[in-house]
Design a protein that fits this description.
- With 204 residues, this protein is mainly alpha-helical.
- It is built from nine helices and two strands.
- Strand 1 and strand 2 form a beta hairpin.
- Helix 6 packs antiparallel against helix 9 and helix 8 packs antiparallel against helix 9.
- The longest helix is centred in the middle third of the chain and has 22 residues.
- The relative contact order is 0.10.
């Protein structure tokens, strides 16, 4: 109601104004994003990519809030629309955002920096790709050979054997990752691509 009718609030100038608060962004990890998007955790909370096709180089249409609300309502009333299964939806029939004015929850879900960038793009894809390109033993040796420096973590045993990673660990590795890759990568294109990925995950 406040988004449509407004609510009186005391502003910074000590005057009482009628404001219309609206939902602008939703911050949460991947599990929370899927819960809010009413989909299973192995589906994308923002677009209609099938679960088994995630990661392929194909653009899929974004989720449509109006259509999803209709699909959830149809499932709740026993109509069992095919889209409910085809889009990996969960039986969350009264999402909190359904009646919010000027709100499209699928455009308001922000990136999960830790799980999607640091652990997803960097650790699960990019780091493995570089290790396969250079070789685990050689790559570890390059991290071991780096001199210690104040403010940077020294990976004296390399990085291939590290099992548990924190957000801080990812940032420390990304600080020196490019230095370990230079002269080891077969082509300059690999260095250029690495620079783009590292700037995406941790702007320097």
């Amino acid at each position: 109601d406040t988004g449509r009718n407004g609510v009186e609030m005391v502003c910074a100038d000590r005057q009482i104004w009628r404001v219309f608060p609206i939902l602008a962004a939703y911050i949460g990890d991947h599990a929370e994003q899927c819960l809010v998007a009413c989909c299973a955790e192995n589906w994308c909370p923002k677009c209609l990519v099938p679960a088994k096709e995630r990661g392929i180089n194909t653009r899929f249409p974004p989720c449509d809030q109006t259509q999803m609300t209709c699909t959830l309502h149809a499932q709740a009333t026993g109509q069992y629309p095919p889209k409910f299964i085809a889009q990996g939806l969960q039986p969350i029939f009264s999402p909190f955002w359904a009646d919010f004015p000027h709100a499209d929850i699928f455009t308001m879900i922000t990136s999960d920096i830790l799980h999607q960038l640091h652990q997803g793009i960097f650790k699960d894809h990019f780091k493995k790709w570089c290790m396969a390109l250079v070789g685990k033993q050689d790559f570890d040796a390059r991290f071991c050979a780096m001199p210690e420096f104040s403010g940077l973590c020294h990976f004296k045993e390399g990085i291939s054997k590290v099992k548990q990673w924190t957000g801080t660990d990812h940032k420390q590795v990304q600080h020196v990752f490019l230095a370990a890759l230079v002269s080891a990568a077969p082509h300059l294109d690999h260095i250029f691509q690495s620079t783009i990925v590292l700037k995406l995950g941790y702007p320097m």
